[in-house]
Amino acid sequence: MGFSKRKKLTITQSGKLNLIAVIALFVIVPLRHAIFNTDGMATAILILSLGLVAVIMGLIFEWKSGWCSGLCPVHPVEKLYGVNNQLSLPNAHCDKCYRCVTPCPDSTPNIDPFSSKKTNYHKIAGFLMVGAFPGFIWGWFQVPDYHGVVGIEQLITIYMLPMIGLLVTSALFFILKKFLQEKMLIAIFSAVAVSCYYWFRLPALFGFGIFPADGMLIDLSGILPEWLIVVTVISTTLFFFWWIIFRKNKKIGWSIRSEYAEKLSANNK
Predict the structure, then answer these.
(1) Is the peptide bond before 105 cis (omega within 30 degrees of 0)?
(2) Is residue 67 included in any domain, yes or no?
(3) pTM confidence score
(4) Residue 14, domain member (yes or no)
(5) Which of 48, 96, 138, 156 is deepest in the core (most CB within 10 A)?
(6) Which residues contact 203 (CB under 8 A, 6 or more apart)?
(7) Is residue 58 within 8 Å of 71, Cβ to Cβ?
(8) Does 268 score more than 60 pLDDT?
(9) 74 in a domain, yes or no?
């Protein structure tokens, strides 16, 4: 529509945005236990604030570079679990490619958090998402939701266990790095992260969680046998390990790259 200034991010700026996005993820997610899981107004304010930031970034920077592939806290997670795709879909966002981000997260085959190592900011962000994130997920699920006014003690608790888990898997990552190729290591840690999430999330949805009232969609604890939940989470874990690690890699991107804008312009002359 012509509203954006479409400024091109430098490589360093892009790396800084990626790192800030990961840090924002690690800061915001634990606050769900203290605020966002129990306070609808606070959650609405958070969503509106992030939406406003996304609009501002879009008004300043080229296409998806500022928010979608830069400052968005969800984007690093997408790169973690999207390392082995089954098929590429038509690009629903870009009718032309302006090379706003390199490498393009949508169309680069087998994109992962380590795909860009151009600056130390990129490297740190990639390490945090691959090596640290599985432990962070584990720690997050060991903390209950707090209702009402939250004090310093609760704030320490909601961050302490995720940080402990983060440090443990980070150390494990550095140890395994000596013995495994990078792509295999990324795949293993990606599978662990996704599997860990659903290992705790699926039981919680149906009233079988560590803290039964937290994150519950419907209470089926009095209807379903507990063994069925155990079989389900084991099955999903096996599926994710097969899907991410052992399944044949098709080496394709999330979506089909649109034709380059400069090429289209040249053809139209």
Answers:
(1) no
(2) no
(3) 0.86
(4) no
(5) 138
(6) 209, 229, 233
(7) no
(8) no
(9) no
